[in-house]
Amino acid sequence: MNKFYKATTHITNTRKKTRMGDTANFTEDGEFPVLCTSKVTNRYTLFVDNTLSGPQDARFIVQALSNANEDDEVALYLSSGGGSVAAGQMIIQAMQHCAAPIVVIGSGDICSMAAIILCSCESFVLDPHAGIMLHSASGGYSGSMGDIESYAKFQREQLSNLLDYYCIGVLTEAELNSIHNEKKEIWLTTEQFITRFKRKMRAQEMLSEYIEGADIDLQAVTPTVYIDLMKGILNQIEEEDQQLAAKATKKPRTKKQVKDTYGEEASCANGLCSKC
Q1: Going by C-beta distance under 8 Å and a sequence separation of 6 or more, which residues neighbour residue 206?
Q2: Rounded percentage of the chain residues whose pLDDT exceeds 90
Q3: Burial class (CB within 10 angstroms; exposed 0-12, middle 13-18, buried 19+) of 101
Q4: For residue 190, what are the CA distances in angstroms to 34, 72, 237, 240?
Q5: Is the separation of the CB atoms in 126 and 190 below 8 Å?
Q6: Looking at residues 155-170, what average pLDDT do you find?
């Protein structure tokens, strides 16, 4: 379940101590034993605040996320134009396998691969004036003409699938198609992103319930199957929302006038009748 909360202003390593009192066995002088336990909580502050030039830019983030345990806390500050897809994939994989809770704190322009990282997180805080931009990837390759064509075709399919997998629900199917086919950029405000992210979470909850109810093996839910199922659920959500909106805007029926027992409209000067 995704949670939206504010992170602390600065995160450093701290040591927390927990004291538990056992009041079951009092001694004769009224004292009772106290159990004292100590627990170390590591708080990690990580930054993606530059253009990711390659996988090497992700190594320290991946190392920290790999070392964090379930009692630790991680704040990842995100404000980047994006960059290397490979570096972004390393960060996303490390986030998904991290035992500690992670909150992404975004501000400024969060673009391209950085925006995909934001779409893949579970908890985030966004500056009210942040800008989120998603678009198709660009790159280069050298070699024979045949090799270049094969590489370009392969990368186009891979990157399209990556964008669909992490951003479906945040972006509509029509918007994703416009990115893939028309090379358009999609810009979202903080408010727009939060609304769309909630829609994605709603769809994922419905998908989880469907998989559990149908007793489907999770191993069978490949990225392609996940995308297809999410498309169907998102269409269902859109239809439900349209029906609710139609009900909300429907004009209420006018109240019929009540007539008296003689078939005449009841009336009185003092405003005490059914007509009044």
Answers
A1: 233, 236, 237
A2: 59
A3: middle
A4: 48, 28, 22, 25
A5: yes
A6: 93
Q: How far apart are CA 179 and CA 166, in angstroms?
A: 14
Dihedrals phi, psi of 259, to nearest 5 degrees: -105, 155
The alpha carbons of the chain give a radius of gyration, in whole angstroms, of 28
**pLDDT tens by residue, 12-71:** 333 343 333 344 454 555 565 666 666 778 999 999 999 999 999 999 999 999 999 999
Using alpha carbons, select from 145, 143, 118 the residue that is nearest to residue 130: 118
Q: Which amino acid is at 170?
A: V
CA distance 163 to 24: 58
Q: Is 103 helix (H, G, I), strand (E, B) or coil?
A: strand
Element at 132 (helix H, strand E):
strand 131-134
Give dist(CA 212, CA 214) in Å, integer. 6
Model pTM score: 0.76
% of the chain with per-residue pLDDT over 70: 77
Q: Minimal CA–CA distance to 132: which of 77, 185, 169?
A: 185
